[in-house]
Amino acid sequence: MGGNKMKVAVVGATGLVGTKMLQVLAERNFPVTELVPVASEKSVGKEVEFKGKKYKVVSMSDAIAAKPAVALFSAGGGTSLEWAPKFAEAGITVVDNSSAWRMDPAKPLVVPEINADVLTAADKIIANPNCSTIQMVVALNPLHKKYGIKRVVVSTYQSVTGTGVKAVDQLRGERVNEVKGEHTAYPMAYKYPIDLNVIPQIDVFLDNGYTKEEMKMVNETCKIMRDDTIRVTATTVRIPVMGGHSEAVNVEFARDFDLAEVKALLQASPGVLVVDDLANQQYPMPKDAHEKDEVFVGRLRRDESQPNTLNLWVVSDNLRKGAATNAVQIAEYLNAKGLLG
Question: Do 8 and 26 meet the contact criterion of CB atoms below 8 Å apart?
């Protein structure tokens, strides 16, 4: 990887995604000279570990004063709206994992395998897409280039880790109580139990009856793939899983396709791993995607109910490629192209 070594801030460093960002930065040997971990005021002074060294968590203001070259944000939309512009004004490039800037026409929304070429040195706030959108477009982009996507129908099966630590604690608490026959109190991230259950709601409902998560998939897909003619409809569902998100995707193309060619296109695509061996019951599962960066694709089959339509099953670790890894890959691209600092 080209570029210079640099000071790097991670905002939200003590959260699920922030912790994963630190892990991914270390694993991918991003050239960090000094880490600036940032979190809420109540976490200031706590320590986080990075590559065997301990760093004290600092405040937002102190992080800006430290002048990092890049700041990876994972601290929620409100925090990003308030603080990302202040970092940007100080000349710091922000890669933001919240939904705050994704649909801002002036801010790039980037999945490096697809549209990193839109980035310039002038882009000081760069949006990281929604986790469920990222894995879907990584799988669909090579097929769109070849066959032209007309319409996508997607149903998701999303991990509780997408909600955060509180949801993980709820699932674990429910499971322990179920096994032990106890009634120990645990935090409730959801209105309903999640263990032994499925909740067909992710984020709040909008006036059109869809949730915000569903409309993120609709709008972000078109922006990332630079094609507003693609029609997308989504149903997003929370399930009691911790390894990653899964998606059943039905995609209608403008042109007909050959299944063997589809498989070959996906196998040749960066960031995609095809697992599709029906004879041996091999297909993507969140357990297998856990702690991996690839987008796993399988169950490739023609939709026999209408022409030019493909079914596929897409799985990815939502904390890695769906969040932390994608953000680090954006920073890697910026660094390699000399667009930081």
Answer: no
